[in-house]
Specification:
DNA-binding, Cro/C1-type_HTH, Helix-turn-helix transcriptional regulator, globular, Lambda_DNA-bd_dom_sf, 0% strand, 77 residues, mainly alpha
């Protein structure tokens, strides 16, 4: 079950970032995180903290509600 959540978060962050036309570097800068951290999140190899997830969501100009809705709707390949 844990792997499913990590994969869904990874997929959702990547999809939203691409939809906004942001590079990993740009998202990292907006969220005050390292680009390698963003890369790890998007690849599902980082066990992201809720604090970091919140920073990323806000850096994507996304509400918590819309992020969670997308997280539950979209399925990773």
């Amino acid at each position: 079950m844990t792997r499913e959540l990590i994969n869904r978060v990874a997929y959702t962050v990547k999809q939203l970032r691409k939809a906004k036309g942001l590079s990993q570097e740009e998202l990292a800068e907006r969220a005050s995180l390292d680009r390698t951290y963003i890369s790890g999140v998007e690849r599902g190899v980082r066990n992201i903290t809720l604090e970091s997830l919140e920073l990323i969501i806000f850096a994507l100009d996304c509400s918590l509600e819309s992020f969670l809705k997308k997280l539950l709707e979209d399925q990773p390949d």
